[in-house]
Every structure is written in C-alpha cells, then in structure tokens.
Amino acid sequence: MKRFIIVCCIVVLSGLADANDFRTISYNVLAFRGYPNNESTAQLLAENAAAHPEITARELSKFKPSLITLQEAPAEPLVKRFADTLAMNYVWFPGGWKGSKNYPGGFPGAVVTPYPIVDSESRPSAGTPHPERLFTRHLGRAELDTPFGSLHVISVHFHAHERSVRLEEAAAVVALIRKLNQSAPVLLQGDLNHKPDAPEYKVWTSAGLIDIGAKHGIGETPTGSSTNPRQRIDYIWATPDFAKFSTAAQVLNMPPFTPEPGKSSAYALSDHMPVLAEFQKLGEEK
Q: How close are the terminal C-alpha atoms of the chain, in Å?
C-alpha cells in the first residue's frame, strides 16, 4: 500500500470542548486564491494573496475543528503552512489530473487534523485499482487515532461535468466505505458536484449513509458559489455508527467565506463555502 507524506506536529486539543466531541469541516478552497478576482477586488487580493493559507486557517480555527478536509488544495508546501498555522497534522493527496496553466497541479486534496494520522492512501479502492477516468480531481483516505477510537476519513472531489463518471465514482466510494466500515466508522467529505435531487445522491442513501447536513436541516442551503449561492454540492456523510452522534450542521455562509456585504473590494476566501458538522459524546451510547 502506497503511503503519502504525513507531517507530525504538536497535537493541540485544547480547543475542543470535550475529548469525545468532534467538529469537522469540508472546504473547497480554490487553491487559496480568493474569489472573485476582478477589477474591484484585484488590489485587496494582491495584498493578501501570499498569506491566504494562514488567513484561511485562522478563520476556520474559530470553529474549533477536529478535522478539516480540503478540495482543490494547492501544492503541498501551502497545505503544510495551513496545517502548521493550526498546529495540526496533515496528509496531502495529489490530483489525478496534472493540471493546466489556469490550474497548475490539478485539484489535490488534504486531510488536516490534530489527531495522529496512522495510515493514508491516495486513490484507495476496495480491491481493483480505479480506471484513469475516475477521480481525476482527487480521492484520498486517512485513518485517525482519536480518543474515541479509530476513524476512517475519505476526502473526495468528483468530476464536475460527466454524471456517468460521478455515478461510477460514487459506486466505487461506496464499495470502499463498506470495506473500511468493517473496522471503524467512516466519514465521507468533499465536493461531490451534484445536488440533493440528483441520481448520485440516491447512491449514498441506498448504501445507508447519512447526510449529516440533511439530518440537521441544511436542506437545499447552497454551498456555492460564494458570490452567487445557487446549489448545494459540498457534503459531509457518515456511516450510521458515527452519524448517530451528530448534533448539528451548517454552511458557513458568512464573511470571510462570502464577500463582506456593501464593500465592492471585498472577496471571499473561495468560490465555495465550508460545510461544518458537529458530533458529541462519541463512543458513548445515548
């Protein structure tokens, strides 16, 4: 099994209310570019761009996360800066597509957490390796060692344009989740590029996964774009053995994840908005 780079930092858990409480965030960060980049925002973007990994980390730290998964992550050195600002461990997953002039490096992903990352893998499967047409953005998994036991985390970014490809990707992830769930609970987080009324959504529910956002009233609340919210395409899903501990969820649809209202020069940190889910008393039966 191929292992990817894991950086160990000092584990800081003081921000958590309790050792068995858990907050997780999924965020497509647009490579820490900021959005939109236009005539009105260009000057402020230029002033802040170099510090976006640290700015994003500090803003997310206000929500005391136990886990952050990134989609459209930048190159690994910038993810390291993001994780270092949070004093957290990380694993970076290379993008399946090698990129272009506008998107150098393609669309990598990352898992960032204060907990030890005991194992990780890029493009994991339930058995047979994936065809190249699948997971051209990224697919990665990490196993965390938490105070309430092992936890499998899958971070994924689905194909943006081809539903047939997304359906194949979803079926492959379901098979992986079933395999992983034999040993520990599983969280699935990412930019799935489909809405709740799409056929892809039914793949997850038919497999018994729980949409934590739907469970706690997010409904059709958009996750993108940050300047023109229209669709919910970013999700946090959990296997039932983990979902039963969930207590809340929300889309972080406020500045700086959206532009500051009434300020023409203001921009958002990304074209997506983060999704947050909370779990309490993990490992304890209710």
A: 37
In-domain check, residue 285: no
CATH of residue 69's domain is 3.60.10.10
- Separation of CA 143 from chain center: 15
Q: Three-state DSSP class for 21?
A: coil
- In sign, the C-alpha dihedral spanning 113, 115, 116, 122 is negative
pLDDT tens, 87-110? 999 999 998 888 788 787 889 999
* Percentage above 70 pLDDT, the chain: 93
Instruction: Specify which residues 23 forms β-bridges with.
Output: 278
Domain range for 267: 6-279
pTM reported for the whole predicted model = 0.92
Both structure tokens of 2: 């191929």
d(CA 242, CA 64): 19
When pLDDT is averaged across residues 254-281 and rounded to a whole number, the result is 96
Assess if residue 177 is contained within a domain.
Answer: yes
Residue 85 tokens read as 């600002």
Q: How far is CA 96 from the centre of its chain?
A: 17
Q: Is residue 1 part of a domain?
A: no
The set of residues, in sequence order, having a beta carbon less than 8 Å from that of 125 and lying 6+ positions away, is 172, 175, 176
In a domain, 35, yes or no: yes
List CB contacts of 194: < 8 A, sequence separation 6 or more.
158, 163, 166, 200, 201, 233
DSSP labels, 27-42: EE-GGG--B--STTTH
Q: Residue 22 corresponds to which tokens in the numbers above?
A: 């858990």
- Give the model's pLDDT for residue 18: 63
Domain count, the chain: 1
Q: Provide DSSP, 66-123.
A: SEEEEES---HHHHHHHHHHHT-EEEEE--SS-B-SSSBT---EEEEESS-EEEEEES
